Amino acid sequence: MQPDQPVPQQPAGQPGAMPPVTPVPGTPNMPPSQPTPSPAPIQPQPEANPFKAGPQSPAPAKKPANPNTTQNTLQLSEVRDNMAIMRDGSFRAVVACKSINFDLMSSREREGVEYSYQNFLNSLYFPIQVFIRSQRVDIGPYIDRLISMRRNQDNMLLGVLMDDYINFIDALSQEANIMDKSFFIVVPYYPAGDLTDLRDQAKGFFGKLFAKPSTEPIKIDEAAYTKAKDEIKNRVDSVMSGLFQLGVKSVQLNTKELGELYYNIYNPDTAVREPLGDFENVTSTYVSKGQGEAPRPSPGGMI
C-alpha cells in the first residue's frame, strides 16, 4: 500500500468547488466520486393541429362488417302484399294445395286426372316449383281437446272409452313421429325475364352456393313493383284455374301465412314448441310524442 497523500483542496469561493474530504485513518484513499449527470429535461411535443396543413397520422381503419352472417345466407328480403321479395329483386307467390286420393279412383278417373294435369303443364308460360313439405304434428292441442270433452261427458261407458283412446294417442305420439305433408306451388316472377333465371340455373347448385353474396340492397321503383303485382296475380289465377280442373282445391297464402311458412321452414324444431301467434290479437302499451307544447306553470302556482 502506498502512503497517504494529501488531497488537493479547491478554494471555497469558486464556482463548482466541492467541500474538502477528510481521509479516514486505516483506509486507503479512494478517488472522489463523480457527480451523476442529471437527465435532460423532456421537451413537450407540439400537438397535431387538424386545421393546419401538414403530414398527420392516418385515422384508424374501420373494421369491415362480418360477411359470414346468417342473414347473408337467406335469399328472402321482405314479405309484403301476399308476395315474397327476394334479394335479387325477383318476386314469389305461394299457392297451397290440398291432396286428392288418386289410389281410390277408377281407371277412367285416373286417366282424366292425368290428361288434365298434362294440359295444365302445357298451358303454363312461366316456370313453377312444386314444394312438398313433411313436418311433425304437435299432438298436444288435440289431446287437450279430448281431455276437455272427457270432463263434460256424463255417460260412464263413453268416458271409459275416451280414457282408453286418450292413453292410446298419448302413447302413440311418444313412440312414433306423427308426420303431415303439405303441398305448395311457388309462382315466381323475374323483372329481368325468365330466361335470365334459366341461364343462372345452368350454373349449377355449387356455383350458387360458393358465389359471393351481394350485400347491396335492391332498389325497386313503384312502376316495376306495380307491374310485378299484376303479373303475379295473373300467374296465380292461371295456376289456380288449372288446379281446379284437376279437382285440387288451392288458395294463395297471404302475408301472415307466408311469414309462418318461412318461419316453420327455417325453424323446424322451434316451430313445433313455439308457433307464431295471431299478431292482430297481440296488444302492447306504447308511448307516442304529444302534439304542441306542454303547459308551463306560472311563478304564482297558477297555470
How would the blueprint of this fold be written?
Blueprint: H1 70-73, E1 76-80, E2 83-86, E3 91-97, H2 107-122, E4 129-136, H3 140-151, H4 156-175, E5 179-189, H5 194-201, H6 205-209, H7 222-246, E6 250-252, H8 255-266, H9 268-273
Antiparallel strand pairs: 1-2, 2-3, 3-5, 3-6, 4-5
Helix pairs in contact: 2-7, 3-4
Beta strand count: 6
Beta-strand portion reads 5-15%
Structural class: alpha+beta
Low-confidence stretches: 10-17, 50-54
| Biggest sheet descriptor | 6 strands, antiparallel
Mean pLDDT: 74
Distance between the termini: 106 Å
> Helix amount, in percent?
25-40%
Helix count from the secondary structure assignment: 9
Order of helices and strands: HEEEHEHHEHHHEHH
Using the CA coordinates, give the radius of gyration.
43 Å
Characterize the overall form: flat
Describe it.
With 303 residues, the chain is α+β, with helices and mostly antiparallel strands. It has a domain at 83-137 and 178-276. Helices cover 36% and strands 13% of the residues. It contains nine helices and six strands, in the order H-E-E-E-H-E-H-H-E-H-H-H-E-H-H. The chain has helices spanning 70-73, 107-122, 140-151, 156-175, 194-201, 205-209, 222-246, 255-266, 268-273, and strands spanning 76-80, 83-86, 91-97, 129-136, 179-189, 250-252. Strands 1, 2, 3, 4, 5 and 6 form a six-stranded antiparallel sheet that branches. A hairpin with a 4-residue loop joins strand 2 and strand 3. The radius of gyration is 43 Å and the shape is flat. The protein starts with 69 loop residues before the first helix and ends in a 30-residue tail after the last helix.
